[in-house]
């Protein structure tokens, strides 16, 4: 199989005349280039229009002996919850004679696949090349899911250690990211659930091509299940955050209640001595020791008694 990265009309015409299968990978092609390759390969005008505009939902449109398969590939970044461009839209024009992939930005996974094909010395069938291109795009989600798993576990530990605004923001970012990934994966899963036969039955595809694309469908089911489980874990992080905040508020309320309870008898004692100041100075308070023992001593004794009682009840211990 020949791999092309630019539009070489003479070479493409030569390959088609020799019925040699080729893969043309275009990154950031402008409208004129897309229309030119469409005319050169005989692509349907509607397929060309979709590739010019982009912004398409994952789908499969068939036009005679050619088909347009729109995929959303994953773009890995660390940390994933701050990944601003987690998806790359990839248009695959499929035929028994060629496969053309179009994307706005360079896509590392396809580049690695091209290197793998160039180094391989074993000839493969057309269905294998088509399968590998699609499979690489679909499997691009697995590294992202692995990173998300670690980040969700770290987020849970951070919330338990001390829930704060940062953890809440990370939780919401992860929710939005998972929702965006699911909106991309579920339509692809539905396409392969309904249209496996259409892709496999393109002219030139062998009978066992169904098995290849069924494998892609299995991968999409697995990715969807993992996204659903991660969404539940992130929802659990939200509940954990709210529970931790509620526990903190309860602990703070308990501490304030202890302080208020300790100061309650002190307020009573100081108020009592204040109201009876005349009587005490004339009959009781004679000398500094009386003030220390009767005034300060009773307040210290009451505070110590209250603290001992709270400690015995277990109110002074943090919840654990």
Question: Could you describe the 3D structure shown?
Answer:
The chain is α/β, with parallel strands linked by helices. Helices cover 67% and strands 12% of the residues. It is built from 10 helices and 6 strands; from the N terminus they run E-H-E-H-H-E-E-E-E-H-H-H-H-H-H-H. The chain has a 6-stranded mixed sheet. Helix 5 runs parallel beside helix 8, helix 6 packs parallel to helix 8 and helix 7 runs antiparallel to helix 8. The chain is rod-shaped and about 115 Å long.
Summarize the structure.
With 320 residues, the protein is an alpha/beta fold. The protein has ten helices and six strands, in the order βαβααββββααααααα.
What share of the residues lie within helices? 55-70%
Roughly how many Å is the radius of gyration?
A: 35 Å
Q: Within the largest sheet, what's the order of strands?
A: 1-2-6-5-4-3
The number of distinct β-strands equals 6
Query: What's the tally of helices?
Result: 10
Main sheet overview? 6 strands, mixed
Please identify the oligomeric state. Answer: single chain
Termini separation comes to: 65 Å
Structural class: alpha/beta
Average predicted confidence as pLDDT: 82
Q: Any chance you could write out the topology, listing elements then pairs?
A:
Blueprint: E1 2-4, H1 9-17, E2 22-27, H2 31-41, H3 45-53, E3 59-63, E4 66-74, E5 87-94, E6 98-103, H4 108-119, H5 126-139, H6 141-162, H7 165-200, H8 209-275, H9 277-283, H10 288-313
Parallel strand pairs: 1-2, 2-6
Antiparallel strand pairs: 3-4, 4-5, 5-6
Helix pairs in contact: 2-3, 5-8, 6-7, 6-8, 7-8, 8-10
